[in-house]
C-alpha cells in the first residue's frame, strides 16, 4: 500500500524530532552519568583506566573519605543552614508582604507596590551591595548570604497574584468571627496556599543551596564556606590538601574521584527534594503566574 505524501512527511518529521531530542537528552545526561560512574569506581581500577564507562569493581571509598573530612562536613552544614533557615525566612517575608499587597484595604499599598516594582527594574550593583553588607556588619557571617536575599520582588508579585485569587470573602468571614489580619493569614490563607509556598520554597531553597558568588565576596573564613565554594576550590586545585580526614590512617582516593563524589553530593539534596514538591510546584507556579 502506497503511503500518502503528507503521512510520509509527518513520519519523517517525527523520526527526526525523536532522534534530535534523544541525542540532546543523551548529551545532557551523559556528563552526570560519567561523574556518577567515576565517583563509584574502585580507586585501583580508576588508576588503571580513567575512561571506563562501566567499572568492574564498585566502591564507595570517595564518599566515605569525603564524609569523614572536617572541611566537607562543615561546608555541608553551612549550606544546609542557608537552605533551611534562609528558605523559612524568605517564605515568611515574601508571603506576608504579598498577602498585604493583595488586599486593597492596606494603607499605602500603591506606594509599597511601586517600591517592589523598582527593585525589579533597577539593581544597585555589586559595589553598593557590598558597602551595605559591610556597613551593617555582616561581612564574614552566614547571615550576609540570607538577609540581603530575603525577598525577591518578582516572587512577591507572583505570590501576590496567587493570594489575590483567594476570595476576599474568607477574610470577611474570619473578621466577623473575631480574627485579626495576622490570624487570618496564618490560620486560613497559608493552609490554602501550600502550592504557592512549595513552589517558591523550592525557588528559594535552590538559590540558597547554590550560593557561590556572594559567598566569595562576603565570607573570608574557609570554615564558613558553603558547599559550592568548597567544591569550586576543589575543582580548581590539583590536590585536595584542604580536606583533612578524621581518620589520619585513611588513604585518600585520587583527587579526581573526590571531585566527582563532591559534585554528586552537592547535587543530590535538591534532586531528592524536588520529586516531593513537583505536584505543588507545578500548580503553584501556574496559578501564581496567571492570576493578577
From TrEMBL:
It is found in: Cell membrane. The keyword Cell membrane applies. Keywords: Cell membrane, Membrane, Transmembrane, Transmembrane helix, Transport. The chain crosses the membrane at residues 12-37, 80-99, 111-132, 138-158, 188-209, 257-277. Residues 76-277 form the ABC transmembrane type-1 domain. Belongs to the binding-protein-dependent transport system permease family. This is Carbohydrate ABC transporter permease. It comes from Paenibacillus baimaensis.
